[in-house]
Amino acid sequence: RFEFEQQVKQAIQQAGRHGAGHALLYLDLDRFKGINDNWGHSAGDEILRRVSQLLKGALRKSDTLARVGGDEFAALLEHTDLEEARAVAEKLIEVLTTATFTWQDKEFALGASVGLTEISSDSEDFASVLRAADTACYTSKQAGRNQIHTYSEIADELRQTVTDTSWLSRINRLFEANRFELVFQRIQPIVADRLGERMEVLVRVRDDDGRLIQPTVFLPAAERYGLMEQVDRWVLKTVAHDLQRSGTSDEVLVSVNLSSASVGSPSFVQFAREILAEYGIPASSFCFEIPEHGVGTQLDHVKALVERLRELGAQVALDGFGRSGASFGYLKALAVDWIKLDRALVRGVPNDPVDRGLVEATQRIAGALGIETVAMAVEYPSLVEHLRGFEIDYAQGFAVHRPESWPPIWEKAFTKRQSQSIT
Fold first, then answer.
1. Phi/psi of residue 415, each to 5°?
2. N or C: which end of the chain has fewer CB within 10 A?
3. 84 with 77: CB under 8 angstroms?
4. Quick one: 359 exposed, middle or buried, by C-beta within 10 A (0-12, 13-18, 19+)?
5. Partners of 341 in beta bridges
6. Helix (H, G, I), strand (E, B) or coil at 423
7. What's phi and psi for 320, nearest 5 deg?
8. Mean pLDDT over all residues of the chain?
9. What is the greatest pairwise CA distance in the chain?
């Protein structure tokens, strides 16, 4: 790492003096943590050695590769612009995703999230360049496996998110200007026909100029400035109003997300009770999704929240299931109605035996507890067949239904027929 830092510093100096352009690539392995957790560090170390060989073989002779963290690598790509760097990144991902990694009698599949940043005359120092590439890599990881992002693509929005302390007034202004929008995505049964329609509503925001603010920018900013509970309440009230107007509340189950702020709020359940009473909507028309990562140290509080929501008559889902090692413990502790399998876990089903094992075990345990399972991020039809083999109950994703503007065209979206399972 020290030698790598020296070479990047030299590249920065060269760019400053002569205007030469370079690029820094930051790569974070996907699915590696499961190898360490399930098979031990000896397996992990062997896989890392193999990964290093593959990456080195795929880079050019002029490139410099370094391992900078547990499962994180960086490469200095000299005299390279971002377009060329992206081609290198695509090659690295292809090499990793097509390789088979073995440990004793076990096989593993890996992927990678990649971030890129330019080294130019504007670059300040090694720390800022590495941080920019790492930030772009984090954005890639949030978007799903085997993604590539450049820092220049996200820099403006990130700078605005970090430095703009006027988000409170800005969001209030967006509310007043009706810049908030909802979209819905259907949740389709896989195994058997079920009565009624199930869907999730998601919030979108347009700035004053009509430009869509990406959720990856808006939601963290709203969370940071304590505004997410206000957003959650707007979503619930809007959906309740539209269900009353359409007269379809008995035919649909609408899933709405609760932020960590709403989960921790002592008054949210009472607010929900009042809104449902105001619009005459049965609580059974709603499922409240609680993020698994928000459970953490407040398990007792979340348990009480789940009980109160279910006493109200609503259903409750645990969202992002399988993201942490405590997932199975939450299943036993929380009396939820659904679990929504984390998107990274679902995407790994076709190629990763660890992910397949976790999905299979999850379905067995959930079935024993009477909990329904939903696979998120089902983005291609062949994945449905894998999930059907595990008897997962529902699928959600682009292969099932692409999000549409809320409210739906009611007479087409909601009928009193059975919902057909995916064929």
1. -130, 165
2. C
3. yes
4. buried
5. 321, 375
6. coil
7. 75, 30
8. 85
9. 71
| DSSP output for 308-354 | HHHHHT-EEEEEEETSSTTHHHHHHHS--SEEEE-HHHHHTTTT-HH
d(CA 332, CA 25): 42
Nearest CA to 354 out of 47, 28, 50 is that of: 47
How far apart CA 314 and CA 271 sit, in angstroms, is 14
- Report the C-alpha gap between 50 and 59 in whole angstroms: 15
- β-strands 372-375, 394-395: how paired? parallel
Tell me, what's the pLDDT at 164? Answer: 52
Distances (CA, A) of 380 to 87, 142, 387, 399: 25, 19, 12, 5
Q: Supply 84's token pair.
A: 């060329």
Structure tokens at 358: 């976790």
pLDDT digits (tens, 9 = 90+) for 184-214: 999 999 976 666 689 999 998 888 777 777 6
Beta bridge partners, 291, equal 319
- Count CA within 13 A, CB hemisphere, residue 346: 29
> pLDDT for 33-50, tens place per residue?
778 777 888 888 999 999
Using alpha carbons, select from 83, 84, 82, 108 the residue that is nearest to residue 97. 108
Segment 283-312 shows an average pLDDT of: 90
What whole-number distance in Å separates Cα of residue 31 and Cα of residue 327? 17
Quick check: helix, strand or coil at residue 290?
A: strand
Answer whether 234's CB lies under 8 Å from 257's CB.
no
The span from the CA of 116 to the CA of 129, in Å, is 10
177-to-160, 208, 214, 255 alpha-carbon distances in Å: 20, 8, 18, 26
Collapsing DSSP states into helix, strand and coil, what is residue 385? Answer: helix
Crossing angle of helices 299-312/268-279, nearest 10°? 20
Nearest-angstrom CA–CA distance, 201 and 255:
6
Per-residue pLDDT tens over the stretch 368-387: 999 999 999 888 888 888 89
How far out from the chain centre does Cα 60 lie? 33
What is the H or E stretch that residue 291 is in?
strand 286-291
**Number of C-alpha atoms within 13 angstroms, CB side, residue 141?**
15
End-to-end CA distance of the chain: 52
Distance CA(154)–CA(136), nearest Å, equals 7
- 402 by DSSP, 3-state: which? coil
3-state helix, strand, coil in the chain (%, to 5): 50, 20, 25
CA distances from 374 to 71, 78, 182, 269, 400 (A): 30, 46, 21, 24, 12
Peptide bond into 407 cis (omega under 30): yes
